[in-house]
Amino acid sequence: MIQVCILMNAEKVSILDVVKKLEKIPGVVETFPTFGRFDIVAFCEVEKREDITPLIRKINAIEGVYKTESLIEL
Length: 74
Fold this sequence. Notes:
Elements: E1 2-10, H1 15-22, E2 28-33, E3 40-46, H2 52-60, E4 65-72
Antiparallel strand pairs: 1-3, 1-4, 2-3
């Protein structure tokens, strides 16, 4: 398994809604809102590197998410 940490910025009124939607996406292991530069953190696991881009696209498609930054295990 490859671990991916996705840091997100979201519209303030929808942060908890985004967290709930993230929890339903296969591959998302843990999510939580944060204070600081990013609003939400999602820890994810994928089988292979080719699975990372589709996962990030699903996350970017969630209403309320306007920016992501991904940290991918080497």
